[in-house]
Amino acid sequence: MKQDLSRSMFEEAQGLFPGGVSSPVRAIKPFPFYTRSAKGSHITDVDGNELIDYCLGYGPLILGHAHPYIMEAIRSQLEKGWLYGTPSETEIQYAKKIRMYYPSMNVMRFVNTGTEATMGAIRAARGFTGRDKIVKIEGGFHGAHDAVLVKAGSGASTIGVPDSLGVPVDIAKNTLQVPYNDVLAMEEVLSAHKDEIACVIMEPVMGNMGPILPKDGYLKAVRNITREYDTLLIFDEVITGFRINMFGAQGYYGIDPDLTTLGKIAGGGLPIGVFGGRRDIMETVAPNGGVYQAGTYNGNPMSLTAGMAMVDFLERERVHHKVNEMGKAMWQSLTDVVRSMKLDYTVSGISSMFQIFFGPQPENYTDALKCDKAKFMEFWRHMLENGVFMPPSQFETNFLSYAHTKEDLERTVFAFKKSLGAIK
Ligand SMILES: Cc1ncc(COP(=O)(O)O)c(C=O)c1O
């Protein structure tokens, strides 16, 4: 695979950006490929290599790259101006549409990233309850802000320690962590810190280490326990919202969280975040209440227009029907390959998300960490050389899009088999 231009661009980038990149996951060793263009299910690098893309901008592009319907919507909005600093009608139309699919989001605020959405939701939960502590799930990712960049020690109620330099210990100590799929640990942490915990924030389906699915009854139990202890439940559906189906994981599993965060697909590929939920909680957000949240680009017409066009298209063309069928075919084919090669790896999937684990099927973060990460990266490189771009980490999810074809899938399964066979 010729990669001379990418290599030299990365050399130059190292003098310009920390680690040569604008976001850490892009720092693929020894160097990342630089993208020239992307269309449909394919991404082409500056050296002319055309790859089948399962990263899809880390999830937002459920219609594939440069989809004409979204492009047209963006183009027509451009003509009308791209930033107003005032409310717009699109805001109202889009919020009503979101609420139709996420009725738990009775009142919402548009922000610009998933990070801002979880930051706003947590602040609203703290403001509403008057409590400082929060609980998150080990290995759950909610963006890169202080309250959620925290790793717990061994026990559920261990005081959180920062996962990043620069996060004050005084902030981290308010973030407690519990393992996913562990009802008892959740019950223990909430009872040990009764009346201290503002909220539990979780990805209902763990997308940042897999996907890892909830065990039967787990989410319902979490909902019941949080109610019992008067703690708010935040579902971070930045990945799963409009991905699993139109209704997200909350619709799929039939759980009503108190607050929800959306992002990624909700912006049609342009930057967006949304947080919303119960009216009484959201009434605490400024200017109505004392929980401050503001932003120059909040509810900007470009992201709203692209997001609304995306939701319209998903609805009209019943996109999930096709991509979820494709997803099932994909993880079944990959599972067949793993079994036929008698390998003790597992393929995990839900809707149009999938991942191969180099180890047994994990149920939580501790399990996921046991997978063979070095082997995964070796496999990943072989996949790239065979024309398939997957997110470069054992702990990310692959995404399918409406633009992927049967031929893409066949080529991917072929590359998968060849790559597994090539691992030493
Ligand atoms: C579940 C989840 N929440 C929040 C975020 C942060 O979103 P953003 O990268 O738009 O800030 C991510 C990003 O991948 C995510 O996966």
TrEMBL record:
It is found in: Cytoplasm. InterPro entries: 4pyrrol_synth_GluAld_NH2Trfase, Aminotrans_3, Aminotrans_3_PPA_site, PyrdxlP-dep_Trfase, PyrdxlP-dep_Trfase_major, PyrdxlP-dep_Trfase_small. Its EC number is 5.4.3.8. It catalyses: (S)-4-amino-5-oxopentanoate = 5-aminolevulinate. The keyword Oxidoreductase does not apply. Its cofactor is pyridoxal 5'-phosphate. It is an enzyme of class 5 (isomerase). The modification N6-(pyridoxal phosphate)lysine is found at residue 264. GO terms for biological process: protoporphyrinogen IX biosynthetic process. The keyword Isomerase applies. Keywords: Cytoplasm, Isomerase, Porphyrin biosynthesis, Pyridoxal phosphate. GO terms for cellular component: cytoplasm. Pathway: Porphyrin-containing compound metabolism; protoporphyrin-IX biosynthesis; 5-aminolevulinate from L-glutamyl-tRNA(Glu): step 2/2. Its main location: cytoplasm. GO terms for molecular function: glutamate-1-semialdehyde 2,1-aminomutase activity; pyridoxal phosphate binding; transaminase activity. It holds the Pfam family Aminotran_3. Belongs to the class-III pyridoxal-phosphate-dependent aminotransferase family. HemL subfamily. This is Glutamate-1-semialdehyde 2,1-aminomutase.
